[in-house]
Amino acid sequence: MPTPIASLSLDLDNLWAYLRSAGDPSWRDRPSYLAEVTPRVLDFLGEREMIASFFVVGDDLTRDEDARAVEAIAAAGHEIGNHSHSHLPWLDSLPIDEQREEVARGEEAIRAVTGASPAGFRAPGFAWSPELLGVLAERGYAYDASLFPTFVGPLARLYCKVSRIRSTDAERDGDAPPEQRFSSLRDALRPLRPHSVATPAGPIAVAPVTTFPLLRSPIHMTYLSFLAEKSPKLAMAYWRTALRACRLRGVAPSLLLHPLDFMGAGECPAMDRFPGMRLARDPKMRLLGGVLDALADGRRVTTIAQHVAAALPASPSHSVAAA
């Protein structure tokens, strides 16, 4: 009997992208922590002999230091996916030609650095749309990983609207629109398993970020760190319960990470107000180690591309509607 599968991914969101989402005009200086954080991530995963899918922002690859960080990720055997060119969490609200440009420019930047075209795409802020899926199918992508089936998405939008730093320049230049998508209530009812979606350009696989079966609450690492700020035992109990629920429901879990999951309180003061960033680095790394160990218990942890290939039949007869 084959070993059950699980997958691991990391959205390589840079410091400037977080600052822009918060409406902080200092994002224009393009501050970056990739050169500092990437070796931590690679060492942490390497010690556990795990591979993951890294979704990379094309604009970061225009700077040598950040491009070298992504080269190191690819050289370590990890999958490189497209996270768009400009990391706009409102990508789905753009005209379709601008969505195409965001996908194409990110793809071209990745190809220039790694020598290979990405097979997968994840939209910033989970801002997927049926039209965007069609663009990906047109360009030959194997899968999209932008679906976040949770009821918490609207609450996340409200949090950003309330907490966003406002400035005259940011509002005038459109740095931070009044709303970012994250996910919708309708998304919360979509499948948790990889599935094929029909588009005018042909079928494309959709690989959701796993949420707690039935409850549809988040189980990604940032949310677990947020719980651990209250109680690390609570966070691990919640994670283990979610994994048991996945087994019972036949869901192969796909865990999402971010660079902030490898940084502790005070290491990047601009990020201290973000969820999970009140934990010191050492306890956060212990939590992450426990989370990954539990994920790998009885499962083969791999990339999303391999997860999709194992989960979906070759026939597109299992397609569902994207609308």
TrEMBL record:
Its EC number is 3.5.1.104. Keywords: Hydrolase, Metal-binding. InterPro entries: Glyco_hydro/deAcase_b/a-brl, NODB_dom, Polysacc_deacetylase_ArnD. Residues 20-224 form the NodB homology domain. It comes from the Bacteria. Gene3D superfamilies: Glycoside hydrolase/deacetylase. GO terms for molecular function: hydrolase activity, acting on carbon-nitrogen (but not peptide) bonds; metal ion binding. GO terms for biological process: carbohydrate metabolic process. One of its GO terms (cellular component) is membrane. It is an enzyme of class 3 (hydrolase). Pfam families: Polysacc_deac_1. This is Peptidoglycan-N-acetylglucosamine deacetylase. It comes from Pseudobythopirellula maris. The lineage of its organism: Bacteria, Pseudomonadati, Planctomycetota, Planctomycetia, Pirellulales.
